[in-house]
Amino acid sequence: MKLSEWEDVLLKTAQDAKLSRGERSVLQEKIKEAALDSSARALLRSRAFAIAREIARDGAPTGAVEWLEEVVKLLLPPTGDGEEVFAEVQFSPGEMCARRILGLLDGCRRSTDICVFTITDDRITDAVLRGHRRGVKIRVVTDNEKAYDEGSDVRRIASSGIPVRVDDSPYHMHHKFALFDGAAVLTGSYNWTVGAARNNEENLVVSNDRRLLTSFSGEFERLWKKFAAQQL
Predict the structure, then answer these.
(1) 44, 78, 112 — which closes off a domain?
(2) Long-range pairs, 3-7, Cβ under 8 A, ≥24
(3) Catalytic pick from 176, 209, 225, 226?
(4) Residue 113 burial by Cβ neighbours in a 10 Å radius (0-12, 13-18, 19+)
(5) DSSP-derived secondary structure for 47-100
(6) For every one of its 232 residues, what pLDDT tens digit does the chain have, with 9 covering 90 and above?
């Protein structure tokens, strides 16, 4: 199929700002049959983001995000060794960054390592707690000062039984990254706050690149050991 034909398919599924089960099956089959390479998938993801922005401007921002999430899932290459490498980016203000974080948290099945400066967005905290309840092994590293800010959800997370460690210096643990099932890493300037979604110019990058996964995993383990004595 030509790009214009793919765009027509995407536009048809986006008309009601949602991807039905039938539309999802048809689109999934078309993608499988086309044997799309990484560059083609990236191009279609880019077009999907453009369509979602158009839907949002027409007055259906929630539907635009939900449709985009489903389409992007279908267009992402499988993760893991020997698979195609993908990388994607979202920007705020807007709901794209928060929605991507929520999707990764809710899709996680084995482990989630979170290393972020501050967490105040209750939607994200609720997703972290959902993962904990379904048996996902979750660890959190965060900043010692921000953990006690008004509105911080860190103590709520710790009280649920999720291990949380903080730095013990006058400086900041300023990272914003997370690892999901050892298969995807999320990083960028985006703080896990409502303000970042509503007001800030931020970015969020997600990738399955093994070089990035290895580096970020190593950094998480280094900090986890370094802050072993500082547990909430």
Answers:
(1) 78
(2) 3/43, 3/47, 6/44, 6/47, 7/47
(3) 176
(4) buried
(5) HHHHHHHHHHHTT-HHHHHHHHHHHHHHHSPPPSTTSPP-EEEEEESSSHHHHH
(6) 676 788 888 888 888 878 888 888 888 888 777 767 666 777 888 888 888 888 877 776 667 788 888 888 888 765 544 556 778 888 999 888 998 899 899 888 899 999 999 999 999 999 999 999 999 999 999 999 999 888 999 999 999 999 999 998 899 999 999 999 998 999 999 999 999 999 999 999 999 898 999 999 999 999 999 999 888 8
Answer yes or no: 181 catalytic: yes
The reply to whether 167 belongs to the active site is no
35 with 150, same domain: the answer is no
Supply the range of the domain harboring residue 134.
86-232
Point out the catalytic residue in the list 132, 181, 209, 226: 181
Catalytic annotation present for 73: no
Query: Which of 55, 78, 101 is a domain's end point?
Result: 78
H or E element in which residue 186 lies: strand 184-187
Q: Quick one: how far is CA 31 from the chain centroid?
A: 23
* Structural domain total, the chain: 2
